[in-house]
Amino acid sequence: QEWALAEWLMTSSTSQTKVDCFLNMLITRQCISPSYKDKRIILQKIDRLQGPTCKCCTIMVKVDVVDEKGKPIEEDLDICCRNPVEYVHELIGNPDIWDAMKYGPECLFSDESEQEEIINEMWITQWWWDTQVRALVL
Q1: Which residues contact 14 (CB under 8 A, 6 or more apart)?
Q2: Pairing of strands 117-118, 108-109
Q3: Could you read off the pLDDT of 126-136 as tens digits, one per residue?
Q4: What does each C-alpha distance from 67 to 26, 72, 116, 119 come to in angstroms?
């Protein structure tokens, strides 16, 4: 949730002065309590999230469109990828996001009778439960 607020503050075209003013309002500090007090700190946290370097290459692909001679049009596509193991290592090792990480499945319900399940994150889905159980059985 805190990262959602940071994302909105960074992408909303709100000036740095207005972001700083919002973050230092008493209601923001008391009700939301973000770990950052100004836009500069948000940017520092984002800079620390860069993670492993990307490996990029260009490939030529033929698209489903033909030119005036009836030949498939070719396009150069830039492909960038990261080693997923390095990326997960970087994420798990970053203390700035530890409070937002989940390691086990959870159940969330919209009512006290637990009849209507809320599914809004990966760790809440049945797949995560099945994967955890399968890992224990193996």
Answers
A1: 22
A2: antiparallel
A3: 887 788 776 66
A4: 61, 6, 53, 46
With 90 as the cut, is the pLDDT of residue 25 above it? yes
CA distance 56 to 76: 13
Which percentage of the chain shows pLDDT scores above 90? 9
Concatenated DSSP letters for 69-87?
A: TSPEEEEEEEEEE--HHHH
Query: Which one, of 51, 49, 18, 24, lies nearest residue 36 by Cα?
Result: 24
Residue 107 · residue 124 · CB < 8 Å: yes
Q: Which helix (H) or strand (E) holds 109?
A: strand 108-109
Structure tokens at 106: 């959870």
Per-residue tokens: 132:
């955890």
Q: What pLDDT was estimated at residue 135? A: 61
